Amino acid sequence: MPGQLIDRVPELAADDLVAALVPPPRFDVVRFDTYVPNPDEPSQATAVAEGQAFAERVSAGSGKRGWLRSLLGGSRGDGTATRGLYFDGGFGVGKTHLLASLWHAVPGPKAYGTFVEVTNLVGALGFAETVRRLSGHTLLAIDEFELDDPGDTMLVTRLLRELMAVGVHVAATSNTLPDKLGEGRFAAEDFLREIHSLSARFDVVRVDGPDYRHRGLPDAPDPVSEEELTASAAREDATLDDFDELCGHLARLHPSKYGALVDGVSAVHLRDVTVAPDQGVALRLVAFADRLYDRAIPVVTSGKPLSELFTDEMLHGGYRKKYLRAISRLTALARDAA
């Protein structure tokens, strides 16, 4: 009998949450010299050069920063905040590869997490404790940087302002330019000042190109039959869950635990996939899909095709890019399983 994700209830201590802020296994071995720029997209080669230059600046300043911090009690000492680097582009152009390469290229202590993982860390530890634990870092790398509600806008702006003021370098990826964060997601008028003050601290590097995950590849495999699903789930360390039951389980877990939920799983099988009934379920599925993709865990499903996981309204709303990214990643994982 295959195991079930709904039977897993991982527990993570504060030290575990901070220690987990590293590039996902899929990006353990990536480096700048393993990124192969598309010759038809010159911005990609430029992005590699910009990332390498930023890594060199961070590395060159790390020793001096440590001496200044010890001398001045944590202040950077020059009255200015560090500048950040911001890789902007569409899905599947290698932004995460570049960000992970940058992380690997600089000395520690350093942290790497998705935007959701960073906000989840604050939620789990509290703001002051998060600042305390990260303020001694050389680099904070944030993947898929998005501001989805006013609370996150204020939270992340304040967090990065405090960290950058004490010399923590920040690098990020996103599908949205920094000065456009928040547009189309909420009434941003009251938060424009915070959004703009944040964007002014980043040098933007555009990364263009088609989604490599689907370049020249067929569409996602069709959902399988019940018999095929059960047979596939018989493989070692695989799991098999009813889709609705898994959605309910995800609602009871803090999203910071989704990675631990699937650690050690060889393949995830979902029975009777349906359309996400509401935004809350849909966003939890996005976070779950990200953790599966991080760990390169194949996905096999029955029921609705993965392309129908989100409603048309969702795909044209404020979280459109999140949902399209999830479909892109789940499609790639379904191909891996096939």
TrEMBL record:
Q: Which SUPFAM superfamilies match?
A: P-loop containing nucleoside triphosphate hydrolases
Instruction: From the Swiss-Prot or TrEMBL record, give the protein name.
Output: Cell division protein ZapE
UniProt cross-references to NCBIfam families, sorted A to Z: ZapE
State the superkingdom.
Answer: Bacteria
Q: Which GO terms describe its biological process?
A: cell division
Residues crossing the lipid bilayer are none
- What are the alphabetically sorted keywords of the record? ATP-binding, Cell cycle, Cell division, Nucleotide-binding
InterPro entries from the UniProt entry? ATPase_AFG1-like, P-loop_NTPase
Cell cycle among keywords: yes
